[in-house]
Amino acid sequence: MPGAVGERHLSREQARALLQLSRALSRRVADLAGELPFAEPPTLAEVQAALPGDDLRCLHVPQPGGPGVGLSYIETLTDDRRLWDEVVKPIVSGTLRPEALPKAQPIPNLHDLVHRLLLGWVVLLPPAGPPLGLDLEGLQQRAVSEPTTERQVIGPKEGFVENFQTNVGLIRNRLRDPALRVEYRNVGRRSRTRVAMLYLADVARPEMVRRARAGLRSIAVDFIRTAMDVAELTFQHSWSVFPLVEQTERPDRVAHGLSQGRLALVVEGAPFTLMVPVTFFDFQHDGEGALPGPAVTAFVRLLRLSGLFLALALPGLYVAVLGADPLVLPVPLTITLAAARFAVPYPVATETILMMGVADILAEATAQSASAIGNALAIVGTLIVGQLMVQAHLASTLLMIVIAASLMGAFLTLKFTLSYSLRIWKYALVLLAAVGGLLGWFTGLLVMLVHLSSLESAGIPYLAPLAAARGPAAVARAVVQPGRGRARTRPAEYRPHQAVSARRGGRR
Amino acid sequence: MSAAHARLSWWQVLLLVFTLSLCLTPFDLPALLMPRLGARSAWWGALPALAVGMWGIAVASALARRSRGRTFDRTVLAALGPVLGYPYLAALVALFLFSVPGCLLVFGPAAHGDLLPRLPVAFVAVMVAAVGTYAARLGPEAIARCAETLAPLLAAGLLGIYGPLVALHPRIAGLLPVQVPTWSEWLSPQVAGAAGTIRGFLPLLVLGPLMAQRAPAGRFALASALAWVLVAGALVLPVLVFDAPLVRQFSFPFLAAEATVGWHWLPLRSLVGVTLLVWYAVTFLVFSTYLWMAVWLLRRLIPALPRRGPVEVLGAGAAVVASLPLPEATFHALFIAWNIGVVVLGVLVPTGILMRGGRSVPTRASAGEWGT
Q: Do A226 and A271 belong to one domain?
């Protein structure tokens, strides 16, 4: 018999479920016990039992004229030199009592004690009173350096690093506003990754802040690997390939976004900071801070929007016009285009999909390789493979131009995540163009438009400011940015709590 | 999409209505009914239709203002009572359901014409129905956002293409791979008719209460009326000035333009092709809005209707109906019937509703009532 309770017999499944339930309850009871305040000071043995591991150091430090102090830390996370200079030496020499150590914080329970040890803190166990924690994190960190994915010719050169506190500090340093709120939270049951939520209390939409808090609270995974994990679990509840959260490496961009009413999430260990809400057009507005005047900004935006069209629609249009509906063009132009691919033995759609595949493989290989190898790959791809395919009549020169323009357009959008989305939709448009010609191509564009219309980022329409616009001026802002002296209001698309940004002669 | 976000701004509604109006055709009724009286009379006949349209806008706006916060069906039932109200709502549903494949019936043959002969009408119908059904499934907010995004893009595209061609024709013609029409061809009534196909007032009636939940009706009515008058004026004025004899053929202005100019004049095809894509976008918007409105009203009348399924079934049904071969005479008869239905259900009955029940005390309605 699998199991029996009193007079009643349980099936194997019931017994297993009961066992799992009892284990879960035991774990919960143990967790709760860990969260109870210390009834009496814990011993080194209890600390060792709570966090077993070879890198956990538990020492007894003698104290002149006293019983000595227990000391516990994880040697791989803690700065040994500071530990010796700031803690051990003063205690051993009798110049300082543990309670008088600067920055020492009392630790209320065992749960908190273990958490601080895992952060690289040193825990002191004095003979009387609660344990004391001291932040002596000593893990080697990369220095602040230039962003690798968001370089700009003119403008700040500093980028985020993997250090959580450094990243928060970089933002604080650019936004010295007392209204800037920083809320810490740990996510990931096992990784216990620190996440900082930053927003301007008087500008950010309260509903957005509430949703972000709830989203962070709802994260129920063991491990947070990258910032994108937090983004997807908090905001991107959609199968869409379009990014609903912006990732940026640049503190100046985050600070500017916060000042406009957006919200940022700094994730421990990630050199990218997340920002919401984000609109489809935000991805085209990067690096505008250093551009001189609205005319130049508008010109750059139009260039980028043209790049977006090239990246997304040009290969499909090529297939639609040349493969299905050549009569749409004037006859001389049609003849010229047809002559350019006279020797290619297969249909224009096959040729295009083949070349797009080759180009995307090369682009991905270039992006994933070290810079020196990447450059070599790019040269090999563009010069040798393309040239050889044309010479072998596997592709036409015209298509090579189309593919090159499309790839350049994709990289003009600046953000990696969006360029991936565009590249995926590009294939769909080519397939639809092959089936339905111009109408098929346009159907694909409309489907994409409907899909984009259904998306929201932190409650804001993804197609803002065109969608849900508050009048023609808001629509125009998609391309024309008001001059620096005229930008009296924050962008309406983020629905900021405080719409007016500044007035002449004072801050509001 | 959450209920909290299922509200439309006045700007959204304006653009929706503006775009929807592009395809509705009260002008065609006099044009179809009065060809024997001559071209000029047919156009003069369009002026009363314009007046009727304006009246429709005014009624819809007044209804929306007076029944703020109350859903459309409740306004109707409160004003007409259940005996008259339910048949009217049922007739309106029938008109919407009739209009859904109607959009495809108008657009399909145009796309299948000489310009894109490779595409069967059924294929065009399936494509438009698929994308329209997808939008209708997502609801009015998504449709409105599509309209808002498309409107400035299409306007900029058309102005960017047609504007310079017209204004700088001799100078830039040589720079482009197309030959542009001459001045007289540009100003022919056929091309003017093709460019100015804007009419309709029925959507105003149904979208009115939608708008009333968040926008001032007066502003909306003024903007709609202005847009309507501007484009209708652009349609009528060239004809009044040029008095073209070909106007008697005018059943569908776009097709007429193609028939008289485009088919025998190859360089115009690229421009007509662009216009055709614009028309496609408008047809998709109209199709999805009619489909959504039909299902929404059906749900109000039959609460037991399942949440999922009706939109998809009706969308697919519309594609099938539009794929069936339809004689020209039957099509014209149906078209006239549709126009009459629009006038009766969209203007006359709402006028009665306004007179009988428009002054009743409004009640609060949740925004979710307008969700799908």
A: yes
Whether residue A503 is contained in a domain is answered as: no
Decide the pairing of beta strands A246-248 and A263-267: unpaired
Chain B residues whose CB is inside 8 A of the A475 CB are: 148, 152
Residue A499, exposed/middle/buried by CB under 10 A (0-12, 13-18, 19+)? middle
| pLDDT tens column, A430-472 | 999 998 888 889 999 999 999 998 898 888 889 888 876 666 6
Question: Are A302 and A443 members of one domain?
Answer: yes
- A–B interface: beta-carbon pairs under 8 A: 105
Question: Is A501 a member of any domain?
Answer: no
Question: Does residue A150 lie in a domain region?
Answer: no
> Where on the phi/psi map is residue A505: left (φ > 0), alpha (ψ -120 to 50), or beta?
left
Please indicate, yes or no, whether residues A178 and A271 belong to a single structural domain of this protein.
yes
Cross-chain residue pair B135–A453, CB shorter than 8 Å: yes
pLDDT of residue B311: 93
- Give the domain-ending residue among A228, A248, A278: A278
Integer angstrom CA distances of residue A139 from A118, A145, A269: 12, 18, 12
The residue of chain B nearest to residue A470, with distances taken between CA atoms, is: B11
A344, A453: one domain: yes
Count of domains for chain A: 3
From B117, which residue of chain A is nearest by alpha-carbon distance?
A: A325
Q: What ipTM, to 2 d.p.? A: 0.76
Query: In this complex, which of B1, B152, B280 lies closest to A475 when CB atoms are compared?
Result: B152
Domain boundary (A445, A461, A477) is at A461
Please give the residue range of the domain that contains residue B18.
3-370
- Do B130 and A466 make contact, defined as CB atoms within 8 angstroms? no
CB contact under 8 A, B116 and A471: no
Closest CA to B189 of B238, B237, B229, B234: B238
Query: How does pLDDT run across B132-181, given as a tens digit for each residue?
Result: 999 999 887 788 788 778 777 776 766 666 555 555 555 555 555 444 55
The least confident of A66-75, A488-497, B173-182, B268-277 is B173-182
Quick check: A437 contacting B, CB < 8 Å?
yes
For chain B, how far is it from start to end, CA to CA, in angstroms? 9
CA angle A448/A452/A458 to nearest 5° reads: 160
State the DSSP H helix or E strand holding residue A44, giving kind and residue range, or none if neither.
helix A44-50
On whether the CB atoms of residues B267 and A330 are closer than 8 A, the answer is: yes
Helix (H, G, I), strand (E, B) or coil at B178: coil
Q: What's at B81, amino acid-wise? A: G
Mean pLDDT along residues B108-124: 71
If asked whether residues A190 and A260 sit together in one domain, one would say yes
Mean pLDDT is lowest, of A112-121, B24-33, B308-317, for B24-33
> How does DSSP classify residue A88?
I
- Which tokens belong to A256? 């500017």
Distance from CA of A471 to the nearest CA of B (A): 6
Sign of CA pseudo-dihedral A76, A79, A85, A88: negative
Distance, in Å, from the CA atom of A136 to the CA atom of A118, rounded to the nearest integer, reads 11
**Pairing mode, if any, of strands A273-276 and A263-267?**
antiparallel
Q: Which domain covers residue A98, as residue numbers?
A: 36-135
Residue A14 counted as domain residue: no
Query: Two tokens at B51?
Result: 């007046």
Q: How many domains does chain B have?
A: 1
Q: Which residues on B lie below 8 Å from A447 (Cβ)?
A: 130-131, 134
Q: Which residues in chain A are contacts of B143 at CB distance < 8 A?
A: 453
Alpha-carbon Rg of chain A, whole angstroms?
Answer: 30
Residues near A388 by beta carbon (within 8 Å), at least 6 away in sequence: none
Outline where chain B has alpha helix (H). 10-21, 28-33, 39-66, 72-111, 121-138, 140-167, 169-172, 183-186, 189-195, 202-212, 217-242, 253-257, 268-301, 310-323, 328-343, 349-357
Question: CA of A489 to nearest chain B CA: how many angstroms apart?
Answer: 20
